[in-house]
């Protein structure tokens, strides 16, 4: 006859993926900051998509839609990587507000100021991703390194494209 042992029934399954628990936690903390920055940039970009006006309306409206759509996919990938490391992903505005390095806009900026703010946001995401890289390299976490590399490449390119609109 089997005993009904609560501690066995609700025990957290161990994770043995070749990365120490303390390293997984540190990496997940960094990825949580990346998630918060990415989600905040998603919200800012979506807001600007809705509220842009002026002679470049059509161009910016479509461009911002492409950017926030890509960010929506990215936040899912980042959150799922955090979960793969055995850590709960942040998922509330309150948590994101504490973790993000990106400022929310005040009011509705001009189209030019929207572009400037999005350049700053794209660059902030790159800096956050780059700051996590030494942790993942030291821990031998190639999967997180690949995710970070892809995010940095995309955000650097997007920042360049946005900056080009300001020239």
Number of strands: 0
Which whole number gives the mean pLDDT? 93
CA-based gyration radius: 19 Å
- Tally of DSSP helical segments: 6
Largest sheet: none
CATH architecture type: Up-down Bundle
Strand content: under 5%
Q: CATH topology, what is it called?
A: Ferritin
Oligomeric assembly? single chain
- Number of domains as seen in the coordinates: 1
SSE order in H/E notation?
HHHHHH
Which word captures the global form?
Answer: elongated
* Regions with little confidence, pLDDT below 50 for 5+ residues: none
Question: Share of helix among residues?
Answer: over 70%
Q: What class would the helix/strand composition place it in?
A: mainly alpha
Protein name: Probable DNA-binding stress protein
GO molecular function, one term: DNA binding
Pfam family, one: Ferritin
Keywords: DNA-binding
Task: Give an overview in words.
By secondary structure, the protein is an all-alpha fold. It has one domain: Ferritin, core subunit, four-helix bundle (Ferritin, Up-down Bundle), CATH 1.20.1260.10. The chain has 6 helices and no strands. Helix 2 crosses helix 4, helix 2 packs antiparallel against helix 5 (111-139) and helix 5 (111-139) runs antiparallel to helix 6. The mean pLDDT is 93. Keywords: DNA-binding.
